[in-house]
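call fold(seq) -> tokens
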Amino acid sequence: MAEVVKLVKRADRGEIIRRKRMSAGLTVGYLASRVSISEQHLSRIELGERDPGNDTLNKIAQQLSMTPPERDELHLAYGVFPLDVQSWIQRNPVKTINIVRQILKKRRENDSTV
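ret:
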């Protein structure tokens, strides 16, 4: 999967959640109660004034029945790896470092040949 991940502006991150919530026909109050946060906090997340913690982000994705690609987009918009990737990194820290270093080395080699 060779996709380019764009940096997402803070206000646009919340818009991902707001659009999905609205398309699901959920109110701010209902979703907030399902993820155990206040309506005000969820509103501020949707407006880009606050960032949710990782647990809250996962609960929001779950309550909105996001597809795996939608969850990945949401996590990456907030600068965190999706749960399955986080779990793999935690179980394989040395392997992760070696893989990232190999990728960086290849990238440097490719950059120097351009």
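The longest helix spans residues 93-113.
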